[in-house]
Amino acid sequence: MIIVSLIKQVPLPTEMRMGEDGLMDRTKAKSIINIDCQFGLEAGLQMKKKYPDARLIACSMGPQSFETALRKAISMGYDEVYLLSDRKLGGSDTYATGLAISTMLKHLGFTKDSKEPFIIFAGRQTSDGDTAHVPSQVAENIGIPQATFVERVEADENGYIIAKRIIEGGHQMMKLPIPCLISLTPTGIGPRKPTLVGAIKSRKSKINVFGVDDINLSTEKIGLSGSPTIVSAVYDIVSDRPPVMMAEGQGEKQLIDDFINRFNSGGNILQKEETKEKETKDLPDFPTVDIRNGAKGILTWAEITNGKIARPSIELLTPARNLANQLGEDTKITTLLIGKNVEPLAETLFEHGSNEVIIVEDDRLQEYLVLPFSDIFAQVIKERKPEIVLFAATTSGRELAPRIAVKTGSGVTADCTGLEIGNYVNRKKKEIIYPILHSRRPTYGESKLATILGFEFPQISTARAGTFEMPLQQKGRKGILSTFKPLIKEDHFKVEILETVRGAGGLQGLFEADIIVSGGRGTVGDDLKLIKDLTQELQNQGIKAEWASSRVVVDAGITEYARQIGQTGKTVRPKVYVAIGISGAIQHIAGIKESGKIVAIDQNPKASIFRHADFGIVGRYEDIVPELIERVKNGFRFGI
Fold it and tell me: How much is the pTM?
């Protein structure tokens, strides 16, 4: 058995900087092994307990400075390390990165037909990109099954891998054959510290370094020029909320009295400065070029959860309709619906905006599986030739889209909060490319908004759940109902779902709630009991309320991923968001900034959450929340 861990060295989120060329400038930033990758490293070490004779290998791609991360892997217990480092790889997008890493792995002998069994571990995503694309792309390039967003993994007595995979509202237990790829979330077993013996060994160990020529990697599809997507623009993200109104008083009773008075008064008003509109530069006198080569229309995926179309898949029809309107009246929205006995669900899609629904039905497709679903999608894309393909950025959508992108040779943009049609001025070729999809996504710790363009078709993007409003339902609206008979291979079902567990709350409740009460690190002392009590009392008053948490609470195993708010969790837009004991990391703010009003409660008066809130209360969780619960019992409803 060989156990391979893929790792990446990333700059500390607080020290991320952008170069003038739109790429990350790492020269002045302190770096660490990406957090999720550290959990992948530990998973490999844990797996060695099952296979004591296993060889542990760590691989990375990046500049020579990445040797630091590889030496740490050795100090933790890994036997060999390999670094793919070449200036020709600079500026590679996720597609090119996945291609390069998988080519290195195949050069080392890791193919789907390898005689010696192997397992590849990776982190779910990296803090500098947060795409979660590369694990899926490596698995597809090698041709092996995968399980992503995994928090627990072990080997059974028959040589299969049993993985607990996080899904919206719960988890799945999966059984995978070897070889396979597993990507780990930071809710797994925490990484161990290097040993003294390991540290000594790491200083003496050889770092095996490859260039692209060493692994016979063509430069056609790597680097900035070979990547199917580019970053065309980057802007700072600026808060548009007015200054916070802080409650004043002695003791929790006075603080809550003052807060309620301020809340009922409506809060501060944002004083916008008059600014001159940015001058729009005239486009150069270049000819306009259409590079779609016959590709036309928009294709979306309807994910099914608990027998219904998942809300994020319906939300997706809002940006799809806007894009279709920009492209022209004859642009059609087609939605692919895969499953068992799913035809009745097409009505929901028609009523929310789909022009055509393509049905693929098979008893074996009742539960989502990435191997058959990605292959079916690729077959539909080949036949229909859409110019744009959209997925909701759910756990399933975020692993499905990049695998399809490899099959179609397309780029993919993750976790978009804005989608529109625009142009691209190619000054080198002296031409204007139009129309082309502008996919906008927050990046670099949610401090920047990047615009990504794709030059291969279809252009594929995933849209952050909760970002786009639900399209209006038009009762009785009809569309074209089609069926598609794909070629389904038996080996696409080599991954078995042993169990699917979904809770009653979580995803749907968070999207529909008028008030969300969310707990962070400062509320873990009672396992969020007061958070839940406040939520329950709001519900008792007839208010649509739900409770949630920050990532640190989920990582500690106190609550499930379905209730995580933030960049790597859910984006919500309630009328009121109550953040309690949450420090206010920018990644969390990304998930709540669309809220109507934000109320922050924290005992640290300097907590950054207050810079993003409308109302603030400084006080201890155990003192403030019980008083707030009493006020809700006496009729305070947060304006709802």
Answer: 0.85
